[in-house]
Amino acid sequence: QQQLFLSLATSLSPLPTPPHSRPPPEFHQGATMAFIKVQKTRAYFKRFQVKFKRRREGKTDYRARNRLINQDKNKYNTPKYRLVVRFTNKDIIAQIVSASIAGDMILASAYANELPRYGLEVGLTNYAAAYCTGLLLARRVLKKLEMDEEYQGNLEANGEDYSVEPAESRRPFRALLDVGLIRTTTGNRVFGALKGALDGGLDIPHSEKRFAGFSKDSKQLDADVHRNYIYGGHVATYMKTLIEDEPEKYQSHFSEYIKKGLEADHLEEMYKKVHAAIRADPTFKKSDKQPPKQHKRYNLKKLTYEERKAKLIERLNALNSAAGNDDDDDEDDE
């Protein structure tokens, strides 16, 4: 009897829940996957702090910016200037910038789209154009500070490394190179702008290791190779190669050069004239283009009730007339 009672009690008692049938709160189960531990819990999202906006957009390297704008406390409110160089698809932007609580302040700026005024109308984003833009910015900021006569810079662009020497009265204008997110590879165009600013008379801490023509093996700068880049020699070599091997490609890739009548052998002379013109007058000139007196507006005008009603009647009449014409055509066919 006792055994019978135990068997009945066992059959009537609820079955124990298997230990793996219900996951704990911090686990979840996929459709066909094993149990995975939840890494980002509620506490993670409560304590989460978003990054700065320009970091989220991938525009600013705040680790580099922090080191570029930090100023010694014993220099009080002395601005710390940066030479900011940025490249777009069709332009080069070079600026002298200082940081403040209100935001970055621009002391002077130069753009590659100003170079046609100095005689350079094609190839506005290559290494040679970057050099011209850096040279233009350097001469412009020194003229603005009335230091252009005292610091002439390197008058002959021979490709050799150059650093300005302090004069007896005023020290040279000092700025730090800000490359942003550009990969600082050897021969990058940003160092062409740096070389132009150095030859223009600015004091910028630098090394010759990233200039075009620096050899990693010999650990020396080949000034002839660097000079070749400054005067567009690499472009001239490519032009000659395309003329011989792929004439059709040359016609399409260098169509603007052909329109201006520029040949490979004439590039160096053109760049020399551009450098001289920049030194002669680096001041900024406002565009002569007048803004339109009345801008075009493309947004639709909101109609009143009467106008909407009249428009509906017009559409209905047009539909009725079209239906009547179709009926007349059917009768004529019969």
TrEMBL record:
GO terms for molecular function: 5S rRNA binding; structural constituent of ribosome. Pfam families: Ribosomal_L18_c, Ribosomal_L5e. The keyword Membrane does not apply. It is found in: Cytoplasm. Signal peptide: none annotated. Residues 282-301 are annotated as: Disordered. Residues 267-320 form the Large ribosomal subunit protein uL18 C-terminal eukaryotes domain. Component of the large ribosomal subunit (LSU). PANTHER family: LARGE RIBOSOMAL SUBUNIT PROTEIN UL18, RIBOSOMAL PROTEIN L5-RELATED. This is 60s ribosomal protein l5. It comes from Nicotiana attenuata.
